[in-house]
Amino acid sequence: MPPIDIAGLLADGYNAWAPAYDRDMAAMGYALPDIFADVVARHLPDAGSRILDAGTGTGILGQRLGRRGYRHLVGIDTASGMLDMARRKNVYRSLRWMALDDPLEFADHSFDGVAAMGVFNWAQAPLPALEEFVRLTRPGGRVVFSATLDDRGRSCCRTARRRITRAGRWHRLETVPAFASHPGASPHARVRVFAYGIP
User: For the residues 12-23, what does the mean pLDDT come to?
Assistant: First the structure.
């Protein structure tokens, strides 16, 4: 029996959900985008910053940042249907199909910051992407990402975060206390947002 293509199944599911995604998430009271955009703006206050939105989805984060004046946004995702919806928001300089569990097709230090909202969770945590985010961010730049937590409050990418820190490749600037991604969420839907600086 051939191996199950988890990434492909996830992309298919998101493609099918894409037309209704924004509406469904708004109806659930999705709290993460506004909190996440606040963290990005704190650590990348220059609206001229070149930011990679890794795991763009329908462009919810890009839309939030666009309202704050950010215009140098590049988005990548593996769900073409989601990218189509993001394209309609007219806030991205470019949008490309790209898988986060592969080496990303950008040169070293291409961005002032990388933002990954809703990407790192227990179902789909492409942990090598954190190393790639560090590679893509210029010295003095920022990496901001959210991560879901387990019942003991540990994030799904805890080991990878600590490994990169021990290697001296980034330092933590901020950790937002855990919060529910939407009202009535189960404990497994609690998230933290992290901001790291690249030396």
Answer: 73
